[in-house]
Amino acid sequence: MPGKVIGKSLNNGFAGSFARTPDSIIVTRPNMGDVNIPFGSVLVYDGTGGVKAVDGTFTADAFVGIAGRETKTALNFLDQDGGGVYQPKEAVSVVQRGSINVVCKAGTPAVGGAVYVRAVADTGKEIGDLEAAADGANNVVLTNAQWGGTKDANSVCELVLLTDAFNEMAERLDKWREVQNRIVRMDRLASLGEMVSGVAHEIRNPLASMRIHLDLLYNEINDEKNR
Description:
Elements: E1 25-30, E2 37-38, E3 42-45, E4 51-53, E5 63-67, E6 85-86, E7 91-106, E8 114-118, E9 130-131, E10 139-147, E11 156-161, H1 164-226
């Protein structure tokens, strides 16, 4: 059973397990599909504000996150994970950014390696399976995810999500830098304007004085002629 730690080596734990960090993003959405969503599953929006398991129409753009593992109220300790699934209409913890355990069904994950989602069923492979090896048009690469390590004896592996929120944050940072650069340019232009204004003032002062003297000289010359 995934999660047991008795033995010579410590495994990675349960699929869907995650640790909240300052930069993680976990939202809650209802399971609007007709089937249960196992912990650690790939999720897509259903079009009504909820989420559902993937189907044969899956694309990388449709990916919204991974179903996180949740401890539920139960009379029996072993039933606290609700059978390891979210039932239809049940609130789902959707991990959109951060690290989460999943089951890698095919390939050998490596740190920083590409993550693929099965889009076409095959022998022993189901739609929605997470994989570490490309299989042509049969699986789809997730552009905002990568493997965080190797899988254990139960095929559980760490998945690292860098979601659109991170990209939006980067875009906002770029815009902020652009605004800062504009402010710096405006300050420089303002300083240049003040300098030009000061230079013009300094030029106008002697010119005005020269004009006054020329006017006086002109008047004196006219007075001499009139005499």
